[in-house]
């Protein structure tokens, strides 16, 4: 579409010919295929094709941002309907087929750590309790290196044994739990709480371990446990009563309120990824993982940019600026003449069209002489000269005369 005559997008088509783009995508890899081990060999890695990128992103995600105090563990799904052994079906997800990704994210939606389901080279901590199951191990692995933080997860991962294990590791943990994972904790049944009405709850705490488990009834009963929070102070929340057709106030334990405030980080990240997803068609399974990982890196960068710059820039605009900056990078060779359009300089020669991230980066800004008959004039307020010299990266005409009235080249890239 970008290169078609009817819907041609000059910013993209003039930057790279279609054949070149197709060749780059077809040859795109994230590993060295010559060192890949076969299935029958020791050390075979199911995710070898994406392992270098996955490891690098996990390292950079944790090093680039200041750690949030409340982190959530949940699953995301990378859409994929092709044939592969790691593909799963999740009935409750909007995209039901794809790769499952265990994710650790903060309240803001910033992702700190990811782990692909089916990874055969994951290493569990050696000092784990024998009571910890496979789903609980996911939380322990993702939370390694985050001591002092508080982890939130749902009933797929949590159990009373997990709360004890996280407490032993110096981590807070609050999670919903299934009835069969609370041990022999003597709590009121769902039927009993339902008879007492909405907002009723029952709880038990263990003095030695500091674990508390609460059974709270709203529309349905919810089992929730924590090793850091308690039921008090009991607050209230507004609920709509269908029979009375009015809003009522329902009692709510404190740990339920904290859980609701902190558990949505992974869902927020998944939502941001779904807005502007790179839907590149490919038959290679690993590319269907790599491209969403690159999208995730851009979303994380956007969240960091907004936090550091105190900016309200929207995600779509940020992605456009990133793409614009990448297209401005120096290319190793110029495109052949037959691949160019008549509009040689598709970027306007105005300072306002050059993003500040490119203009002031101090990389590859070199004056080059443009062969043309009439010399254009770059209109800095203090300059009225005409010049054929152009910044190779910014594509802006700038004079470089030291005795000139403005010395545009230096001022443009520094002021």
TrEMBL record:
One Pfam family matching this protein: DDE_Tnp_1_7
Domain PiggyBac transposable element-derived protein: 1-302
InterPro entries named among the record's database cross-references: PGBD (IPR029526)
Official protein name in the record: PiggyBac transposable element-derived protein domain-containing protein
